[in-house]
């Protein structure tokens, strides 16, 4: 029902920037919450940022002031602008999608992930 296609990952130096994109393809329009998660090698998957259809956002403390989540509802696309990147930001970043007005603990759909590597 929903397909998520991620792009924008890559290799950057400490202090650099990347912009991730996630385009959602749906057969039927619905109100939704979209998120970015990340998983570093040997660690569990953590929530990075979330945004609702009406633009409410939340961020993990580790990325506040450095990352910005945004969305383009007309294009069903969510973005993650990542600035001042640190080696500890290195992870696979996953886009996620939940039907409704509020985020739930487990999203309804996941993207395949895109690798972000920050060199020291």
What does this structure look like?
- The structure is a single chain.
- This protein has 120 residues and is an all-beta fold.
- The strands form two sheets. Strands 2, 4, 5, 6, 9, 10 and 11 form a seven-stranded mixed β-sheet that branches.
- The model has no long low-confidence stretch (mean pLDDT 95).
- It contains no helices and eleven strands.
Q: How is the secondary structure organized here?
A:
Elements: E1 2-7, E2 10-13, E3 18-26, E4 32-39, E5 46-52, E6 57-59, E7 67-72, E8 77-82, E9 91-99, E10 109-110, E11 114-119
Parallel strand pairs: 2-11
Antiparallel strand pairs: 1-3, 3-8, 4-5, 4-9, 5-6, 7-8, 9-10, 9-11
State the gist of this model.
The protein is 0% helix and 55% strand. By secondary structure, it is mainly beta.
Report the biggest beta sheet as strand number plus sense, adding barrel if it closes.
7 strands, mixed
Mean pLDDT: 95
How many β-strand runs? Answer: 11
Oligomer: single chain
Derived from helix and strand composition plus strand pairing, the structural class reads: mainly beta
* Order of helix and strand elements from N to C terminus: EEEEEEEEEEE
Instruction: Name the beta content range.
Output: over 45%
Compute the gyration radius: what is it? 14 Å
Estimate the helix proportion, in percent. Answer: under 10%
How far do the termini sit from each other?
Answer: 40 Å
Quickly count the helices. Answer: 0
Point out poorly predicted stretches. Answer: none
What general outline do the C-alpha atoms trace?
Answer: globular
